[in-house]
Amino acid sequence: xxxxxxxIMTAPAISVAPETKLKEVVNVMxxxxxxxxxxxxxxxxxxxxxxxTDIVKYAGKTQAIRFISPSGWICPYxxxxxxxxxxKGFELLASTTAKTVMAxxxxxxxxxxxxxxxARIMSRRKINRVPVVDGDGRLLGLITRADLVRSFAERGEK
Length: 158
Description:
Elements: H1 5-8, H2 22-32, E1 36-40, E2 46-51, H3 52-61, E3 65-67, E4 69-74, H4 82-95, H5 98-101, E5 109-110, H6 115-125, E6 129-133, E7 139-144, H7 145-157
Parallel strand pairs: 5-6
Antiparallel strand pairs: 1-2, 3-4, 6-7
Helix pairs in contact: 6-7
């Protein structure tokens, strides 16, 4: 059986808008136990993708670091009081939008792409997720490495 993106993908994919604040993005990821989300515009077209890695890199550049859980962030200034540290970290998340942090060059595939083709793309590009889009670039679903492995395992069972 030929596995295509349409058969492998998770749909509907959890996504966020470019204007979504990082605090909400982090909460969405934690709530759904996922490590990244496509960013889509009002027409449903993929305009970016944001991952925990993107957020951690941004946090490192802006002096905010991950603390305890994906929904708790702080600013690492040892001389500040604990309350100020928490407040500063939450202010950063509350004011920064997904479009500030997202990767704008997104590798996507169409629904008829083969599982092998997707595996090669993920391996060569060193990416963990690939949005599946229609001919107009609108999000249909998302394929993660876990989805790909699961599809290969299912194919091996038959």
